[in-house]
Amino acid sequence: MARHLFVHMLGDFYMELENKKLELPGSIFSKTKNLFLLILLYGEAGIEKRKAMELLYQNDDGDESSQYGRFRVLVYRLKKYLIELGLMQENDTLHKKGVFCWQPQELEIQIDAKIFESAAKEALINQTAESFDRACTFYQGEFLTELTSEPWVAQKQVYFQNLYTQCVRSHLRLLNAGKHYGCMLEAAKRAARLYPYEEWYIGWMEALMGMERWKEAFQVSEELEKNLMDQMGLRPSPEVQERVQKINMQIRGSSKQLWEIRQELEEKDYPQGGFFCNYSTFAWAYRYKIRKTARDGLSHYLLLCSLTEIQEGNSWFQEGEVLDTTMEYLGESITVSLRRTDIYTRYSKNQYLMLMFQMKQEDCSHISQRIEQKFRKYPGVRKFRLHYYYAPVIQNLPASWKSPKSFHTHQKM
Prior knowledge:
Blueprint: E1 3-8, E2 14-17, E3 20-22, H1 31-42, E4 47-48, H2 49-56, H3 64-84, E5 95-96, E6 99-100, E7 107-111, H4 112-126, H5 129-138, H6 151-177, H7 181-194, H8 198-210, H9 214-232, H10 238-253, H11 258-265, E8 275-276, H12 279-296, E9 301-311, E10 314-316, H13 321-337, E11 343-348, E12 351-356, H14 361-375, E13 384-392
Parallel strand pairs: 1-7, 8-11
Antiparallel strand pairs: 1-2, 2-3, 4-6, 5-6, 9-10, 9-12, 9-13, 11-12
Helix pairs in contact: 1-3, 4-5, 4-6, 5-6, 6-7, 7-8, 8-9, 8-10, 9-10, 13-14
């Protein structure tokens, strides 16, 4: 009776033999495991020895003879591991005539990446909602996420992601045309959770709009705007803005009692410090203040805070997890440094923009100093520098104002 080995390569990597987790000794980053994964992926056709070496040693500067020696060691270790796991016998072989293949008798091997590939190709031929749903269900995440640094893995990641993108795009188009909004909602939401792309969020919003779930659609649009700004420093496209406008019109057109509307508008809690909002909300608040300032004559200020990294005498900002974490620290520092009546937003990848009401010019300096003091208490921020620029909120510039006066400081490290 055949046993079953399931290999999960999309998302978290793991293997199951008869529904029990199976572990090869050593780290997944080892060349031995890489070789095993390649042999599994190439299946019955097998992979030629030269091709396997080419993929495994793409980033290796060693000479060819040393690579051959190391490769023989890999093959020896892999066979030893498989024997220890009871998946090979001593007299079995992993290669024949220069081709590596592992297809043991009485063992049925299933690999989710290959199952998805087959289902996706079939769906793209058949062009049915059912086939697309089946294919997309098999895709649980990036191909071997832990091994992205391996060139052969990175190439496969792009290949499988492109297949998935084609399937989701066609699937959403079919569901939207047929007004199957419930299925469309699930497909778009699943895609957006895997890849927070604007295209999938638009599908998510359109599904909710088709179901007339306007408030939920608005919440999705806010999540999209936050993701775009936090991860890529981008603002929503005109396509998204068009849908948001339609959603807002529907929400405004709904019939509710005043007390219900007031409950929706109220903050659920009352946090101390400045009020964070997305850029669109910030822009509307700014425009309103410009109008109001013309009548009340009060002084309001804009403050821009930019973060750069100090390195070899130069300043710039470098993208990545470190920048994201540092910007979170900066956002928290701004929150506690502003008053509850002030608002701020994430303007770009390395900038926050603040709108402070009823302020004097010297108060801006005090605010920037408070931000600086709070920010410097966080770990790992010494290599970063904050720059502050401020200008008053006014409606008409006097003739003497060719450009607004600004405040720019480099705080001590």
